């Protein structure tokens, strides 16, 4: 695997969102990630594709899974990886994002992975930096690599997206994962349903070209994939749900509600899970129906594929 002779996969030198990416680009990324999934299951998990390159992880929001996944992906590809601690940096002392960009530019990184609480932060940095920028989640906007790893997980189990119905359930309003998945799954030919209480649905949710349900059982009827979302209490500034107990009663995934889905339906969750709030433990831990562990594994593979794809445009 060498980028010197490899053909380009992405038109852009950044990955800021699923919006703007074509279906052939997605397919090429998933195909490339398959090769890294196989590599990661072997004894020698390293390649020298990014040897001499520097990858910087800049996370303004904590995320153990995403940050460690990018760190592992970078190291397995031979990059020098720097995790910048925002809590102890100048950012915590009042430095602006523009000032941070100037500081980073002076360090001359090759790839910056950024997670930020403001929508549009990754796009802003991409205009101010001379390196490739990967959006690891910005506000309530997008989380493209999560959607890509979810797509890879689904494709490995189902082979194709055509004819599949995927239900995205829970806190749609605050979820960048939902937004990226809606775009990607629709782009690849799947039917998408949103299931949530009215208080956790975006205004005019049907404008996304999806089916919208406020009744969990009706929404799950005949679906192939059930994608649960975390109830993001930290982003809520009001009473969006009466209580977590009531929320689980109506919108938490248990065996009874899952029985309305198609026989053999598979369950996903981007993590971290609130057990007994959005999903019952016996479903989360059931390897016959749960893809949650596989999602984590595919996260490393898809991020290696993204780094590979971005490296092909580097001088």
Structural write-up:
The chain has 315 residues and is α/β, with parallel strands linked by helices. Helices cover 37% and strands 14% of the residues. It is built from eleven helices and nine strands. The strands form two sheets. A five-stranded parallel β-sheet has the order 7-6-5-8-9. Strands 2-1-3-4 form a four-stranded parallel β-sheet, with helices on both faces. Helix 1 crosses helix 5, helix 1 crosses helix 11 and helix 5 packs across helix 6.
Features:
single chain; 315 residues; alpha/beta; 5-stranded parallel beta sheet; 4-stranded parallel beta sheet
Short overview:
The chain has 315 residues and is α/β, with parallel strands linked by helices. It has helices spanning 23-40, 64-76, 97-107, 121-128, 144-158, 176-187, 216-220, 244-251, 255-258, 281-284, 292-311; strands spanning 54-59, 80-85, 111-116, 132-138, 165-169, 191-195, 211-213, 225-228, 266-268. The protein is built from eleven helices and nine strands.
Tertiary shape: globular
Radius of gyration from the CA trace?
Answer: 19 Å
How many H/I helices? 11
- What's the order of the H and E elements? HEHEHEHEHEHEEHEHHEHH
- Strand portion: 5-15%
Average per-residue pLDDT, rounded, comes to 92
Helix fraction bin: 25-40%
Distance between the termini: 17 Å
Structural class: alpha/beta
Largest sheet: 5 strands, parallel
How many DSSP E strands? Answer: 9
- Unreliable stretches (pLDDT < 50, length at least 5) are none
Lateral arrangement of strands in the main beta sheet: 7-6-5-8-9
């Amino acid at each position: 695997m060498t980028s010197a002779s490899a053909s380009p996969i992405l038109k852009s030198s950044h990955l800021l969102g699923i919006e703007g990416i074509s279906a052939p680009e997605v397919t090429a990324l998933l195909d490339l990630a398959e090769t890294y999934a196989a590599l990661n299951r072997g004894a020698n998990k390293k390649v020298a594709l990014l040897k001499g390159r520097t990858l910087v992880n800049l996370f303004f929001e904590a995320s153990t899974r995403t940050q460690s996944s990018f760190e592992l992906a970078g190291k397995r590809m031979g990059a020098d990886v720097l995790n910048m601690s925002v809590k102890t940096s100048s950012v915590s002392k009042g430095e602006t994002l523009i000032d941070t960009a100037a500081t980073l530019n002076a360090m001359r990184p090759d790839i910056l992975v950024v997670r930020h609480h403001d929508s549009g932060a990754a796009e802003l940095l991409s205009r101010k930096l001379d390196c490739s920028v990967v959006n690891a989640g910005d506000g309530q906007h997008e989380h493209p690599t999560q959607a890509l790893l979810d797509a890879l997980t689904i494709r490995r189990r189902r082979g194709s997206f055509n004819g599949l119905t995927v239900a995205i359930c829970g806190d749609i309003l605050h979820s960048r994962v939902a937004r990226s998945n809606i775009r990607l799954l629709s782009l690849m030919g799947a039917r998408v349903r949103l299931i949530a209480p009215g208080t956790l649905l975006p205004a005019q949710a049907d404008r996304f070209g999806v089916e919208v349900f406020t009744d969990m059982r009706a929404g799950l009827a005949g679906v192939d994939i059930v994608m649960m979302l975390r109830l993001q209490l930290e982003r809520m500034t009001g009473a969006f749900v009466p209580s977590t107990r009531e929320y689980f009663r109506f919108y938490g995934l248990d065996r009874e509600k899952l029985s309305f889905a198609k026989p053999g339906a598979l369950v996903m969750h981007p993590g971290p899970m609130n057990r007994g709030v959005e999903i019952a433990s016996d479903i989360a831990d059931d390897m016959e129906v749960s893809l949650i562990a596989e999602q984590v594994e595919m996260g490393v593979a898809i991020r290696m594929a993204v780094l590979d794809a971005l490296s092909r445009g580097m001088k």
